[in-house]
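A further point concerns the way the authors explain their paired sequence and structure data. Each protein is reduced to its one-letter sequence and a matching series of backbone shape codes. An entry of this sort, consisting of the sequence and the corresponding backbone structure tokens, reads as follows:
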Amino acid sequence: MPKLRPALLALSLVAGIASAASTQPPAQPPLTALTENSGGIMPPEQRRTHFDHAELHIAVDPAQQRIDATATLTFTANAATDVLLLDLDRNLPISAIELDGMPLPASAWSNPEGRLRVQLPHALSAGEKVSATVHYGGRPHVAKRAPWDGGFVWSHTADGQPWVGSAVEGEGCDLFWPCIDHPEGKPDLVDLYVTVPKPLVAPGNGVLVGVSEEGDKRTYHWRAKHPTTYAISINVGPYKELTGDYHSRYGNTIPLQYWYLPGHEQQAQGLFAEFPRMLEFFEAQIGPYPFGDEKMGVVETPYEGMEHQTINAYGNDYKKDGSGFDWLLQHEFSHEWFGNQMTNADWNDMWLHEAFATYMQPLYSQAINGDMGYYAWLDKLRLSLQNRYPVVSEHSETEAQVYDDAHGPGLDIYNKGALMLHSLRDLIGDQAFFASLRELVYGRPDPQPGNFQPHYQGTQDFVAIVNKAAGRDLSWFFNVYLYQPVLPKLDVQHQGDTLALHWQVPHDLPFPMPVEVQVDGKLHTLPMANGQGSLDNVPAHALVIVDPHSKLLRDLPQVTEYQQWRKQQAAKGKPKQDG
């Protein structure tokens, strides 16, 4: 089934796609179905342990397009268990495993399908710790078209120097390190040691602890707290660096770092100048930057982008689109709040990452360009909705199922979700709306640096947060927009001097969504109790505008006609023209 990757897909409709030529990947065996799919239901064996610490030593050999690695993983038993269950691509052969420093016989572990099962010599009781060291290596899976198809990208700069990046959101962390490949599989702490040939540089997640040198090799040691599993990344290149500090409204100072390729100095300085403005916006709109004690980091990559925690991948080629900001950088940076600080409990809740990150762009455009920028952005999103599958299903999902545009919600988790948030904001008001966002992101209403930790949230958590903030039960709103695919349709009938409105919703779901109607310049609000409302004294020739301020996400015939026309043009082989 076709796959879509990853957190920037929806935005391609407002900017071109950049790509960097990479070397022809070597022949590689296919991934197993288990490795290719990320998420789903976490096995009970994995829930019996808490992931305390990952110490990853990864030597990158760009010439051979391979890695040699050792991972020491520490767990605490949540419940009695006699097994460790991890995920690692079987195409990275394991040479040895030690448990608490003692070698295990090969008969004690197996990895036939990419799920590494380590039999413990003695069962652990709840609260006991165990440390497993896995020695492995080989050619990691090569991305055919990163970041939509995950893996490593082995590329070269314009002057022929190695340029390497990893992007594994779709397939998961098990493409290059032994992990728990599930949104809830975050380790508390990661120490990442990346060894590269001199003079290459290896930017990474979190804080740089140190750099050591041995012969013609150089090792970078990075430390990150609570990193999202797929957000741990490998970046290698002949980078130069821009640095600075941002003095936050919350009183803390945030390091700013951007690694860019030689020859891009002028463009890099322009992009780097956007960092403080973005931080100012997000901290004013949502709350404190979640990783202020680490850094706001960005690295230029040989693929378009990815929300790698504190080291966001950027490959938009410094494009300009008239908006006054770099859409890719802004979107990926949004994920530091919606994805890395607040992480979906299941891939089925992925709209919590993508819808909010997408909605941040019209909000940011409004902050820069006023209302025209806000509504222009929303209008582009509106033209792309599919409405074939619910944004949220009734069961646990894998990443591939969620992002599949043919058999799942696909881009609707971005665009429909963002437009739904626009309607929700107008329904409950700015105070309740932004209070709900803060509660979702930080788990508390009063975030300050140091008083919150990254955490997990699900769809029903957000519904409960909104209900509390709004002071009423709005489940009907989410049931219509999230749990069934078809948009509500507003039937408008003008008979005599009466204007009658009726919401038409599949399965006759309750939908008392208020509707504004402007009649000859005068605004009226119909509460639409039981999904119906009417307005009297509306002359036959009055100028009537339904929803004059575009608050409602609803079925619009002109949008359907436009989408059908685009399909017809595509079938004829004619280039599509955005409206």
Remarks:
- Confidence is low (pLDDT under 50) at residues 1-23.
- Residues 93 and 303 are 27 Å apart (CA to CA).
- The two ends are 30 Å apart (CA to CA).
